[in-house]
Design brief:
Strand content of chain B: under 5%
Oligomer: heterodimer
CATH superfamily of the largest domain in chain B: MetI-like
Largest sheet of chain A: 6 strands, mixed
CATH architecture of chain A: 3-Layer(aba) Sandwich
Order of helices and strands of chain A: HEEEHEEEHHHEHEHEEH
CATH topology of the largest domain in chain B: MetI-like fold
CATH superfamily of chain A: P-loop containing nucleotide triphosphate hydrolases
Shape of chain A: globular
Radius of gyration of chain B: 23 Å
CATH architecture of the largest domain in chain B: Orthogonal Bundle
Number of helices of chain A: 8
Structural class of chain B: mainly alpha
Number of helices of chain B: 10
Largest interface: A-B, 31 and 25 residues
């Protein structure tokens, strides 16, 4: 596959957005990440897959600087990543809307933290509300939303930031298949509209193949990159097509650690 | 949009009775209680020397509304005296207690600095401050407000502290990854998420303040509902004592209702 990666990478002329070099993390003696290096292009949709408990979430938390790496660097636009300076957004595994804010206020949260001018905030939030069809929920508190609507709000909130890097940690892990298919398409639509660089972590191979332009396959703990796979299937993807199934099978083979 | 809208009673225990029926049930409960009380005295099952009839109490209430005898103050004067004390002590307790609890719960340095002293003051019963307070401040408004302050302050601190400690870590991470610093995260995430428990603390504080008030006034006072009760004992007038108790109960319930109202306004997102 490696020639194919190089060929595809050569065709992709987008500038490098995120540069990860030799990222390593120990928790005391527990070795979680081992010398992980890769690039993410501007506007690229990257999925990270790996066996359960391999350190996927640690990997994301390093990218957002919730944890400091033991070794290695993470650069965004050539500068060391810093949540205060760079515009990062995160969609966590657990529902993370602020229960005391209405849908609209939730969407504005990160933009207000960034102290953007009021008219920019207004404009971006209106766009997200329109894109996600949240008009009727604008002044509703999350407690009265369904789980899937709440998750749409959270995803919308992340995209409203127009982040340099959007990190999503198994955002659909706890949803049924119908909701997942629906939200996968939503996320692709927002990504295409807004042109955000996305890192999407999942343990669902089909989801990774469906969404990504590039798949990073991690090994068991301590996690290394087993394969960096460029996914050139045309969007919208057909999960029943032969190419899709072949790719899915290949990724599944690569993940197997037994 | 609301999850429960239009659905029948969730547990099905009320068999879908209307809210009017429920209100009438509550009224009937109060009336039955009073009726049993009245009948016990009418049929001489309990001696009138120890207990007054509800009907007598209503007449006494009307009488006491304008007459100062036998304890030296009309009922409105007594109520006002007690309210002043309770509300000033309570307000001070909330205004200092809630912020202190929030700060202690969020900033570790403040916690370590304040907590040892707080832990020692905490188990001291508020009424044990009475003797010292009399020495310091006499038996006026300030003295009683000071005692009540302690009874209100402590639950405010403890609940706000616990409330902010329970802030969802994911929400904190959302704020931090958006680029918020610790102080901004404190007031944008910590404080709102601590509000429900802080309110529970204020609720406890109101109860404490009101019950401590009576104790404080029974020991040292020249006016107020607690004072009226202890005068009733002095004159061997159970009706005066009962009236004092009932008025205290009613005002306590009123406070609670008022607080629920404010709480629903402030925490409208639940």
């Amino acid at each position: 596959m490696s020639e194919e990666v190089n060929a595809a990478a050569a065709r992709d002329e987008r500038p490098v957005k995120v540069e990860v070099r030799h990222l390593t993390k120990y928790f005391d003696t527990l070795h979680v990440l081992d010398d992980v290096s890769f690039d993410i292009k501007k506007g690229e949709f990257v999925c990270v897959v790996g066996p359960t408990g391999c350190g996927k979430t640690t990997f994301l938390n390093l990218l957002t600087k919730i944890y400091e790496p033991s070794e290695g660097t993470l650069k965004i636009d050539g500068e060391l990543a810093d949540p205060k300076k760079h515009n990062l957004a995160f969609v966590f595994q657990e529902p993370s809307s602020f229960p005391w804010l209405t849908v609209e206020e939730n969407l504005k949260f990160g933009l207000k933290v960034k102290k953007l001018p009021a008219d920019v905030i207004e404009q971006r939030v209106e766009r997200i509300i329109k894109l996600l069809g949240l008009e009727e929920f604008r002044n509703v508190y999350p407690a009265s939303l369904s789980t899937s609507t709440e998750q749409r709000v959270i995803i919308g909130r992340a995209f409203a930031m127009e982040p340099d890097l959007l990190l999503m940690d198994e955002p659909y892990g706890q949803m049924d298949i119908k909701m997942r298919f629906y939200l996968e398409d939503e996320v692709l639509r927002l990504w295409r509209e807004i042109g955000t660089t996305v890192v999407f972590i999942t343990h669902n191979v089909e989801e990774a193949v469906y969404l990504s332009e590039k798949i990073l396959i991690l090994t068991n703990k301590p996690a290394k990159i087993k394969e960096e796979l460029v996914n050139t299937l045309p969007y919208p993807r057909n999960i029943a097509s032969k190419d899709f199934i072949d790719l899915r099978r290949h990724v599944t083979e690569q993940i197997k650690w037994w | 949009m609301k999850k429960n809208e239009g659905k029948a009673d969730k547990l099905g225990r009320g068999m879908g009775a209307s809210s009017y029926t429920y209100a009438m049930l509550s009224v009937a409960g109060v009336l039955s209680f009073l009726l049993i009380w009245q009948l016990l005295l009418e049929f001489k099952l309990v001696s009138g020397r120890y207990l007054a009839k509800p009907t007598e109490l209503i007449l006494l209430l009307i009488y006491k509304w304008t007459n100062a005898a036998p304890d030296g103050a009309t009922l409105p004067v007594s109520i006002w005296a007690s309210m002043q004390v309770a509300l000033s002590g309570l307000a001070l307790g909330i205004v200092t207690g809630v912020p202190l609890g929030l700060l202690m719960g969020w900033f570790k340095g403040i916690d370590k600095f304040v907590n040892p002293v707080f832990e020692i003051i905490r188990p001291i019963p508020p009424i044990s401050w009475i003797p010292l307070t009399i020495v310091w401040l006499g038996i006026g408004l300030q003295a009683k407000a000071f005692i009540i302050y302690f009874s209100a302050f402590i639950p405010c601190v403890i609940n706000s502290y616990t409330g902010i400690k329970l802030t969802n870590k994911t929400l904190i991470n959302v704020a931090k990854t958006s680029g918020a610093g610790n102080v901004e995260t404190f007031y944008k995430v910590g404080i709102p998420s601590a509000m429900p428990l802080a309110f529970a603390g204020i609720r406890v504080a109101v109860g404490n303040a009101w019950s401590t008030l009576v104790a404080a006034e029974m020991l040292a006072a020249s006016a107020g509902l607690g004072y009226m009760i202890s005068m009733g004992r002095l004159y061997a007038r159970p009706d005066i004592i009962l009236l004092g108790m009932i008025v205290i109960g009613l005002i306590g319930a009123l406070f609670n209702g008022l607080l629920s109202f404010v709480e629903n306004r402030v925490i409208k997102w639940r």
